[in-house]
Amino acid sequence: MHENLISISDMAKLHGLTRPTLLYYDSIRLFSPVYVADNGYRYYSRIQIPLLREICFLKSLGVSLKDIQKHISQRNPEAELQLLVEQEGKIERELQELGRKRLALQQRLYMYKEAVIAVSQPQETPFIRHYKPRSIIFHPFQASETGDIDRQNIHLTAMGLWRDLYSHEFLPAYSFGTILKKESLLTEKPLKDGGCYIRIPIESTGFESTLVTLPEGTYVCQYKRGRPNDVTVLNRLLGWIEKEGYEVCGDVVDACFLDTTFDEELHDEVFSMLQVPVKRVE
């Protein structure tokens, strides 16, 4: 009798499964042997092969065993079609989620690669970069009653932006920093009317915060280590820009690469890059 049947080990091997897997399928009554010998050995019929093949196929698509079991008990072409359509929708959503995670990962990789290269180079030397348009969400600093901007004000402003980002189901991996308005740079309060920003994918819409496009153009850049509200390095950079025959033609970007979690001593300083849009003085 056993000659016309397939042992549990052979049935498992035929479908790339393990013996314990078939034992489990039997225990939940999803796929059971046609014959169990007195010694406990399990045997399957050859006509059961297409059914197990279908179970393996549906499972490979991510269909749960519970749904497979329900489907097998009342299987017909219409039900199979409906199941596959639903699973296709689920896979599409998973692909979108993976794409979202991949984009966030790429953003974080860019930041850290830039930081790793930067910390090994002279940080006092300005350099020129050309940037393409960049989409950001922007929110003005939450100034104190005196109008001063300190670390706490910047932190509260940034948290408002992160909440806006989370509401759109974006991961907290996108580059961020502060924007200093051109009109305020040479005043007694250079942070006046400035604010925090987070870079977002260019096609994103619907944010509560102000959607801004940083213009394409030439930027004089310099790395900076310090507090976000410290403009000492920026003032030196503005002097260099004037000396080299440039003039500022837009708002300054202070792009954070390494936040305070990398400051092991004080947890107070960030590593960032100042980006000042410029043009040649005519």
UniProtKB/TrEMBL annotation:
<dbReference type="Pfam" id="PF13411">
    <property type="entry name" value="MerR_1"/>
</dbReference>
<dbReference type="InterPro" id="IPR000551">
    <property type="entry name" value="MerR-type_HTH_dom"/>
</dbReference>
<feature type="domain" description="HTH merR-type">
    <location>
        <begin position="5"/>
        <end position="74"/>
    </location>
</feature>
<dbReference type="InterPro" id="IPR009061">
    <property type="entry name" value="DNA-bd_dom_put_sf"/>
</dbReference>
<dbReference type="GO" id="GO:0003677">
    <property type="term" value="F:DNA binding"/>
</dbReference>
<keyword id="KW-0805">Transcription regulation</keyword>
<dbReference type="GO" id="GO:0003700">
    <property type="term" value="F:DNA-binding transcription factor activity"/>
</dbReference>
<dbReference type="InterPro" id="IPR011256">
    <property type="entry name" value="Reg_factor_effector_dom_sf"/>
</dbReference>
<dbReference type="InterPro" id="IPR047057">
    <property type="entry name" value="MerR_fam"/>
</dbReference>
<protein>
    <submittedName>
        <fullName>Multidrug transporter activation protein</fullName>
    </submittedName>
</protein>
<keyword id="KW-0804">Transcription</keyword>
<keyword id="KW-0238">DNA-binding</keyword>
<keyword id="KW-0678">Repressor</keyword>
